[in-house]
Design a protein that fits this description.
Length: 295
Amino acid sequence: MDTVLLRAFVTVAECQGFSAAGKVLHRTQSAVSLQIKRLEDQMGQPLFERTSRSVLLTRHGERLLPYARHILTLEDEAREALGEQRRGELIRFATSEEQASAYLPELLERYAQRFPDTRLDITCDISASLVAQFQEGLLDVVLSIRHLPTQSGQLLGWEPMVWVVAEECHPGDWEVLPLALNPEGCTFRAHALSALGREKRRWEIRYASQSPTGINLPVQAGLAMTVKTPRSVPAGCRIVGEAEGLPLLGQVEIELHRRPGHTGGALEAFCEELEHIVTTNHDVAAPSHNDMIAD
């Protein structure tokens, strides 16, 4: 059984589409379709039901999927045992700068003890950009703040959003609230402006930056206020809320994207360690079983 065809089959099943699978596999959609057709010919059964809107596994495809994953896992283990991956697996990981600061120190230390030869290529950017890069097949693992529903995002939990000002600042002293926020497209920005709009508070965006440093500096200097999660409140700042006249902001969803069709033990262990650290050691409310089913 051709493992190249099986990898294409598993990737299409996990991506739920030929176009998305092609981006992950770095192949055209037509090339992936041809691979699936060849596998279906070998199996003598249709593996997918194709409609104009979706690609779903047939009964035969559902039966084949666990066997295909097992075969690919064995192939990866055999290659590693024979020294083909002696340099260590390369994992292209991405997250925001603030999430990296919160989670990576513990993650890297723990993970390096288990997989000292694994190589990590770490990218930091805003979540929307990272998810787009993941969907283009440019990243293997992304820890992000959910902006829009995706097929690849696994819900890890929720974090509250909070208003943050310098310790000596009081929002009531500002007639017009000066804001320091990320650029358009950031869910923190959207929640902040929506909440202020509902309360009919006057505001002005004084500082905009894609970098946490560009946001933190004017806030720490007492020149503006911003929106964070509790784990990301910078030094010299404090959380403010309803008691000082500011509206509630709600929560953001934390999600994990991992490359479909990949069975390497190093990547799976990396995702397990990351999920454990995010949900266990920080102020993240883990989803219940029913939440994960609904998601």
